Amino acid sequence: MERGILAVFREAQVTKVPIADGGEGTTEALVTATGGRIVYQQVMGPLGDVVEARWGILGDGKTAVIEVAAASGLTLLSKEKRNPLLATTYGIGQLIKAALDQGIRKLIIGIGGSATNDGGAGMARALGAKFLDRSNNELPNGGAALKNLAKIDVSQLDFRLAETTILLACDVDNPLCGPRGASTVYGPQKGATPAMVAELDQALKHYAELAKSITGKDVAETPGAGAAGGLGAGLLIFTPSELRPGIQIILETAGFEEKVKHADLVITGEGRTDMQTAHGKAPVGVATLAQKYNVPTLCLSGGLGPGHEDVLQQGISGLMSIVPQPMTLEECMVDVDDLVAAATGRLCRLVQVGMQMK
Amino acid sequence: MERGILAVFREAQVTKVPIADGGEGTTEALVTATGGRIVYQQVMGPLGDVVEARWGILGDGKTAVIEVAAASGLTLLSKEKRNPLLATTYGIGQLIKAALDQGIRKLIIGIGGSATNDGGAGMARALGAKFLDRSNNELPNGGAALKNLAKIDVSQLDFRLAETTILLACDVDNPLCGPRGASTVYGPQKGATPAMVAELDQALKHYAELAKSITGKDVAETPGAGAAGGLGAGLLIFTPSELRPGIQIILETAGFEEKVKHADLVITGEGRTDMQTAHGKAPVGVATLAQKYNVPTLCLSGGLGPGHEDVLQQGISGLMSIVPQPMTLEECMVDVDDLVAAATGRLCRLVQVGMQMK
Fold this sequence. Notes:
The structure is a homodimer.
Chain A: H1 2-8, H2 26-34, E1 37-44, E2 50-57, E3 63-67, H3 68-72, H4 90-101, E4 106-110, H5 121-126, E5 130-132, E6 151-153, E7 165-169, H6 182-186, H7 194-215, H8 227-238, E8 241-244, H9 246-253, H10 256-260, E9 266-270, H11 282-291, E10 297-301, E11 316-321, H12 329-334, H13 336-357
Parallel strand pairs in A: 3-4, 4-7, 7-8, 9-10, 10-11
Antiparallel strand pairs in A: 1-2, 2-3, 5-6
Helix pairs in contact in A: 1-13, 7-8
């Protein structure tokens, strides 16, 4: 984009602000935006294997950014291996612990792309909580085991969590259970059959009731509790977490508001713009904040799908596709850097024509 | 385009000027632009068959527009039937005669897409010229027969041609013969083998020399004489023709200059924009004239190919592809009206953002 802008507005000052929406790329974006660093940590993967998870420490040295997908992601498993009955968020708990060990007390957790449906029980276990059956034996990993949950022991829960702020970048409003719950809505894409969905939904319901009786927190109906297979609920139960739209957290952390105040124009973008974009996705979050300072926002898109015009009602002033001619998605992806630069140039030229007209 | 413009600039006055470049669509464009009418005429097709050729009488009732392709076009023949040795421009001569019969004394002829390589001899024959061999027999149709040309008799040539103006919309500068001539450059796409190319090139050379000795006109080297298989040469030899860039003739005839004077913005377009566009194609012709009145021209394109940026040096201020996302050419063509409307809307919005910035 910078290349395209400077090809037209040669004197422009370009301020780049890496943006993500709490999903893939959030760690990278925030680390880059704040001048932080990437950290690697070996943790338990979704099915008990070892994964090298990538997380970030921001430029302030005091904030960590963790993507759920990095430790417990669906893409860590081949399609045949997916098993939401057994998959665990234990690795996320380990990453939280690793951050706490480094003295970090502010965490940003990007939810999205998890392979799990364990209500965040694995995460809590990694941080000291104990999930016991009637015989006082610890439950195995995974959401299915929670149907046998008889007792939750939080006496050994990491005390440092109490002094920690966790911002949960969450763009879904699903409750934990029921027809709009984690198991029903997201279970199938993680490999759950209808029978598994029913089993998991029941198990999570039981888990939430027990958690309520012990912690006093009733999170089952909280919008977002169903995020990442109920990890949303787990974080709300066991940690001082706040669920907020991902783009808000990212814009705040990246200091976007300070930067946009003095801008003449914002150019943002995303892979595909359609009716979903209008519902709180990154470009609309960017535009909303820019609008506060009367700075117009234009959106470059890898593809303009059905309903993309909706974003024009959400603060975005103009759109452009990066696709210069009939071509396949694969062809676009090979050349995406050059396509973005060229399209940004075209976009700037059209704005320039307008500037010269009046 | 109008739909897209009015979706953004609701108070805009839109003046539509149909444009063509002398090729396909020229008749339609000029008839529409001037409020004329379409006429059909049965004439001889490229291989002696009968074709129903479409031509136009402009709104002034005094000007005809004829496309070479309508009577002698390559698309009138299946690929197997193409034969540049035999194909004739006789039908074009018949159309010229039909126009003269209607009292018309100004003709615009769009050259392009011809199946012929006869130097326009067929055209001249239809208008009364006689092409004879040594035995004073008339030659058969087609370019190959011209090698036996011994005499051209113009005594019976339609005398009304003398009081007629013929504007030849011609965007090529090829001479009649030689390595850049009609046979060598355009013969192969009309079905000529290398041997046929050589035969035709020789025949046209002989024809031009004989024509020169009789009419005193040496047209073999005139740029454009090689257009439409040498029809350019034939028209120059036998009629008072003037070769000019197609877009200039069309813009003039459509009264574009008068209309653009008062415009704030011109939006033009074409199927594909690439390095060739910069060399006198329609959008550049439009932009050049608009630039005279400091009106910016933007170009919408079905595809932006290699070198499309060159047009930015030729008066075009901005470009946009109509392609909203990765898709095939076929998908684009099915939806082209809506794609053009939507892209025009996007283009106008970007201009509007610029207008509001300064």
